[in-house]
Amino acid sequence: MKIEELFSVRGKVALIIGGSRGIGEMIARAYVENGVKVYITARKAEACDALAAELSKTGECISMPGDVSRLDEIDRLGTEIERRERRLDILVNNAGASWGADFQSFPESGWDKVMDLNVKSVFFLTQRLIKLLEAAGSPESYSRVINIGSIEGIRTTHLEAYSYAASKAGVNHLTRIMAKFLAPKHVAVNAIAPGYFPSKMTAAIDEEGSQYVIDNAPMKRMGNPNDMAGIALYLASKASGFVCGAVIPVDGGLATTA
To answer: 214 near 220, Cβ under 8 Å?
Structure first.
């Protein structure tokens, strides 16, 4: 098989949660530029609409704003996708939030907000869309669920972000159990565990903290859009046809060599 066919995603339909900025935007760009029909959703309609309009200049990108931390919104988004599509080849569960506070003052609100968005939404959105994912899958070509975990769910972070670290460890393991039980439906579930990429979340880290990350990563840099595009295209294409239940760190070696 030629490499162009092995890594091709042309003609597929994808939904990217949290697709208006950061890692979600990187993945959306990679898919649109390579022939995927992409739906992006995010809480802020303006940001979602603006990116969809920009990406539609080079491909097909549809804005579908929504708040996946709420079950009623998950159901509404599912209904809207079902109205438009008969199948869903790729679901990227990327919505995420963090909360930083010292141990003694860490609030319940900072726990619940992060867990609802980072973990609960991954399960219930995939559950809501399983029929469309099943419709796209076959024994020869599985549909794909790609969960965005984090290296902070693999390593012990230097940041006091208790609910974030716990939530991403949850996403990493939820990926494995979903993979086990959805594979018979011809749906392959895997996760990307990013290290530090430019995003609104990492922008909140001070200069000293950012330098600490760079200094401790063997590759001595943060990630860039091409780093994320490569893994996202791989996990959506025939190239990863026998990959199921994997959690792949993309972090310049930060988590795996520390």
So the answer is: yes
The DSSP code sequence of 110-148 is: HHHHHHIIIIIHHHHHHHHHHHHHHHH--SSS-EEEEEE
- DSSP bridge pairs for 147: 93, 191
DSSP state of 248: E
Q: How far apart, in whole angstroms, are the C-alpha atoms of residue 133 and residue 186? A: 8
Q: Where are the alpha helices (DSSP H) in the chain?
A: 3-6, 22-33, 45-55, 71-84, 108-115, 121-136, 162-182, 200-203, 207-216, 225-236, 254-257
Kindly report, residue by residue over 178-210, the tens digit of the pLDDT. Answer: 999 999 999 999 999 999 887 655 555 566 667
Please give the positions annotated as active site.
164
Domain of residue 149: give its range: 3-257
Q: How far apart are CA 227 and CA 149, in angstroms?
A: 16
Tokens encoding 219: 């590759």
Residue 98 makes CB contacts below 8 A (sequence gap 6+) with 114, 161, 163, 164, 201, 204
pTM value is 0.93
Structure tokens at 80: 């809207």
Number of domains present in the structure of the chain: 1
Q: What is the CATH number of the domain that holds 149?
A: 3.40.50.720
Determine the distance from the C-alpha atom of residue 210 to the mean position of all C-alpha atoms in its chain, rounded to a whole number: 22
pLDDT tens per residue across span 16-41:
999 999 999 999 999 999 999 999 99
